[in-house]
Design a protein that fits this description.
The protein is built from 15 helices and nine strands. It is an alpha/beta fold. Among the domains are: 96 residues, Helicase, Ruva Protein, domain 3; 163 residues, Rossmann fold (3-Layer(aba) Sandwich). The protein binds adenosine-5'-triphosphate (ATP) and magnesium ion.
């Protein structure tokens, strides 16, 4: 432990180790991207775009699957802008109930609705002269979209129940893991708002498309968790690294981060003990790239396996969302999309070829596709 050195949360180990663990800071610009790890072309390209757009006030749309690092990029944009000394305010459109979202964004006056016992300042006002990170913008309800459009065009709005027009100076960075263009075609997202938000899109590639970043990320997270847990880890077995490079990472970097946290907990000695069962099934690798249907089928099997292993506990530190490296709400909407629901004990009927163990939930779990077809 005494050989570990920590600089700004970054862990360094001596050069002489068999397999040197080192943290990597990407190097597009001097120290500009501390905490963003990886040197592959895809990430470098995204960071170059961050550098270009950050000093402007342009609205940025960060696109990418869950856990790819969209929020990290949004913060980097803020940190590299002239607004860096001002607040970076975040709002997640998916996690706030739609009835409350309008008042969270724009605030309300006292008495605007039942329970509005005091005036409330919304996130747009809190972010004044700073940056507002509109996370999961694809989940913004249709009825709120015109009001957001007006702010993005004229930078003005009224608090709920208010008559005074409030002017703000806010830089907006939005993010989504949805295909907004498709949502526009399906009339679930306004086209005028789409064009306003999509001024400067930055795509963050999924981890499976940039396996060259995995080694650096593993080293970085091992360093972070080892320091936090006061462990000294100096070796990562080559077979484990290879398994991690080959895995498809449906939960992307967040899933890798969670796996390494578990691995460090499981490693009392100097060798990292990676729970290989978690990375040896590679659902996405078995399917053709554009075979969405079989990808979904395989994704479904993988999610189902984790749900079964966590006894259908979705949230919490030991829940399926944490295992998969996703937000609880992201997993819940994925489950809905994939038609995955917890099997009801009384509804269990063994499909042919499946021998129930007890006729109960355990039996339902042993036949993993049951309940998912509902
Ligand atoms: N390149 C990276 N280097 C270091 N850490 C990373 C990197 N990319 C992502 N992470 C870490 O992975 C986790 C997920 O990242 P982040 O929250 O930015 O993802 P996201 O795309 O916003 O996910 P979601 O869509 O689920 O909200 C965070 O803990 C973040 O610090
Ligand atoms: Mg996010």
């Amino acid at each position: 432990m005494d050989r570990q050195v920590e600089h700004d949360g970054i862990w360094e180990a001596p050069e002489s180790m068999d397999e040197v663990l080192h943290s990597e800071s990407t190097s597009v610009g001097e120290n500009a991207f501390r905490g963003i790890v990886g040197k592959g072309a895809a990430l470098r390209d995204a960071l170059r775009q961050v550098e270009v757009v950050a000093p402007t006030d342009a609205t940025v749309l960060v696109l990418g699957e869950t856990g790819t690092g969209k929020e990290l990029l949004a913060r980097a944009i803020h940190d590299q802008s002239d607004r860096r000394e001002r607040p970076f305010v975040k709002i997640n459109c998916a996690t706030i109930p739609s009835a409350l979202l309008e008042s969270e964004l724009f605030g309300h006056e006292r008495g605007a609705f039942t329970n509005a016992v005091a005036q409330k300042i919304g996130r747009f006002e809190l972010a004044n002269r700073g940056t507002l990170f509109l996370d999961e913008v694809g989940e913004l309800p249709m009825e709120l979209q015109p009001k957001l459009l007006r702010v993005l065009q004229d930078w003005e709005f009224e608090r709920l129940g208010g008559t005074r027009t409030i002017k703000v100076d806010v830089r907006v960075v939005a993010a989504t893991n949805r295909d907004l263009a498709q949502m526009v075609r399906e009339r679930r997202f306004r086209d005028d708002l789409y064009y306003r938000v999509n001024v400067f899109p930055i795509q963050v590639a999924p981890l499976r498309e940039r396996p060259e970043d995995i080694e650096a990320l593993v080293h970085y997270f091992v360093g972070r968790f080892a320091a936090r847990m006061k462990r000294y880890i100096e070796r990562i077995p080559a077979a484990s690294m290879e398994a991690m490079r080959r895995y498809s990472w449906p939960g992307n970097v967040r899933e890798l981060e969670n796996l390494i946290e578990r691995a460090v907990i499981l490693s009392p000695g100097p060798t990292l003990e990676v729970p290989l069962a978690d990375v040896e099934r590679r659902p996405a690798d078995c399917a053709g790239d554009d075979d969405t249907e079989s990808l979904d089928r395989l994704r479904r099997m993988h999610v189902l396996r984790i749900l079964n292993e966590t006894n259908w506990m979705v949230g919490g530190r030991r829940g399926a969302a944490a295992r998969l490296g996703m937000h609880r709400t992201t997993l819940q909407s994925m489950m809905k999309r994939l038609g995955l629901a917890r099997p009801r004990e009384d509804a269990f009927r063994a499909p042919p070829g499946c021998v129930p163990r007890t006729g109960s939930r355990a039996a339902a779990r042993s036949c993993s596709t049951h309940g998912a077809n509902a």
